[in-house]
Automatic annotation (TrEMBL):
Organism (species): Streptomyces anandii
Lineage: Bacteria, Bacillati, Actinomycetota, Actinomycetes, Kitasatosporales
Keywords for this protein: Hydrolase, Membrane, Transmembrane, Transmembrane helix
Protein name (Swiss-Prot/TrEMBL): HD-GYP domain-containing protein
Xref: InterPro entries: Cyclic_di-GMP/3'3'-cGAMP_PDE, HD/PDEase_dom, HD_domain, HD_GYP_dom, HDIG_dom
Region of interest (Disordered), ranges: 414-452
Amino acid sequence: METVAPRTRAYVACAGLGGLLCLLPLPMTHTPWWALALLATVYAACKQLARRSVAGPFYPVLLAAAFLLPPPAAALVPVPGALLTPAGQRPEALRRIWRAAQLAVAAWAAARTHWSLGGRDAVVGSDFPYALVPAAAAVAVFCLVLTALEGGILALAEQVPVRRAWQGSFARSLAPIAVHGLAGLMMAVLWRSPYGPVAALLVLLPMCVSWWAYAQYHRERAAHQATIRALVQAVDIKDGYTRGHSERVGHASMMIARELGMDDERVEVLRFAGILHDVGKLGVPTRLLRKDGPLTPDERRVIELHPEYGHEMVRGISFLGEARSAILHHHERLDGSGYPYGLTGGQIPECARVVAVADAFDAMTSTRSYRRGRPVGAALEELERCAGAQFDPRMVTALTRALDRHGWRPAVTADEPAAQAVDPAAPAGAAPASSVAAPAVPAAPEPREVRR
């Protein structure tokens, strides 16, 4: 949204007009102004706290307002906080107006739904479980309006395809917003009880603690991502010939892991393993990585030390877990002809067998400046041909099934001038710089392959 198209500005203007229309009947409603002011102040304070963390939106106050106040008053609660809190990105004013309008319309719709179903009387009388029915409907409407408006801005401002802009967004958002809705309902019930608003606001304490813990988790995760990104960027700078390869190997490793039914935590570790599998290149002399022409046996032995270099580099990074062994062993082969230790069969860690297949597949399907990438089908045929001797057949089958479901979009990985990137020793149509190329060409492998 930094450079805003006219259609996007028109969309935001329409949303803002809708928000204003939600507020218009406000002076004529029997609004408890002190309650509105208190809820708006609490929500603005929550917005300020959210600005200093990486946690997601905090909706209990808005949903409590939808359960307690008339629809126009509920629509007003988020407006001061949304307008006064810096957006952090340009265009600042437009982003603030958009957020205020989006929340105002969603809160109005939720309150209107709740009141239409008799929810106000249920909250006042603490009529359970009936009070849950209008509250659940209001939460669903709140989520629906937010996701519908958000999908529109994605389609217009971010140029996301219309089908993808809304696909799955409601389902993903409903569960977390439902949790916020339960907290909002507890606030509303306590607010109307003899204990009053002070007790209602106490409900926010455990929510804020969990929110803080969530923010800490995401800070730690962001630090992990930054560590990995720095390592990958260092490899790409040193060996630009395969730029982008690491990220795609991480993605392919993740696809295999999911197809094998691994849990989410292990899938993430396999993604890290794929991304960092070549980090040991940082320990290899740049002249060898960029050498045009055949490598000597001594140079080849230096290149083949990169898995051990990589393992040493990440040894102290605890969150990588078994990814460290994948970095060390991703060039091992089932028949024992790999390196660095010549492990065979089940001696090779499972994670390393996953990364080996992902690495070879991306290298074959990636277009390089000296030759076009192979079609996905041809690459899979080569993997299947080498399965059992070089690759674990189970991993090859898992990748094949995952690609049947999700497809693959290989990209150009080399951005060097053709004169620099072409290997004069590589024959036309030779296998890519990958561990899969050796079985396809059992004779002296071309230099680019060895450097992998």
